Amino acid sequence: xxxxxxxxxxxxxxxxxxxxxxxxxxxxxxxxxxxxxxxxxxxxxxxxxxxxxxxxxxxxxxxxxxxxxxxxxxxxxxxxxxxxxxxxxxxxxxxxxxxxxxxxxxxxxxxxxxxxxxxxxxxxxxxxxxxxxxxxxxxxxxxxxxxxxxxxxxxxxxxxxxxxxxxxxxxxxxxxxxxxxxxxxxxxxxxxxxxxxxxxxxxxxxxxxxxxxxxxxxxxxxxxxxxxxxxxxxxxxxxxxxxxxxxxxxxxxxxxxxxxxxxxxxxxxxxxxxxxxxxxxxxxxxxxxxxxxxxxxxxxxxxxxxxxxxxxx
Length: 313
Ligand SMILES: [Zn+2]
Known about the structure:
It contains eight helices and twelve strands. By secondary structure, the chain is of the alpha/beta class. The protein starts with a helix and ends in a 16-residue tail after the last helix. The relative contact order is 0.14. The protein binds zinc ion. Zinc ion binds at residues 262, 264-265, 267, 286-287, 293, 296.
């Protein structure tokens, strides 16, 4: 752990309410009561200590519906301090309804600054993407997770999946991938591709594209995952090995964008969204990470997003 955690737990300054409207000032700092924050922080520490292992926690009621990021929001609120700079993305976009509303809520109950710039953020809450810009050691990336159990694909019983994790018995997941190859001559799992963390725990990386998985491997930032509805927290600490399941003779592959580039900023080597023009039916592509695209447009960023990509497949 970085020495950040103790300072985050320190009390907010007495005047944090001054900048807020009177109605918001009646909440605890960051909405959750101090007991809830303490419990969530303790669960996070356990999750960091056992990378990839799902830790149960008492998920709180939040003022948004379950399934809209209540897990990610609880981690954000338990960790955020007055000096933090917050970024929230939804499928790579800073300006979607979900991202904008979560940002609005967190600033109302904390008064923290928000940004769209990945490099300027200290705390990033995300749904289904990892930013293209490499993350730094003092940054936190918090994932909203719909289904935390990677084995749910092959086993409906919670009791049985717990046993499989305890015994590191992942043979049925291997078999599932093998049968996929036999049937389709490729692994058809797109998002939620199962990964092995620290060579021990099978983990669901949340529905990020396969493209983002190499960024989890030995990353410099702390990755935290939380499913509010399923009441589970798990983590990938910095510099931890994260390997997608693959066979010796059938390598893991990320999505291929060979020969394509962003129609807006011209970048190659970023994860692209397909855009179909309704009038002409023409297909174009644009960066899924809108903040990266903006930066590249302004010429502040290199046009090759990162060293990994198709060549790393
Ligand atoms: Zn772009």
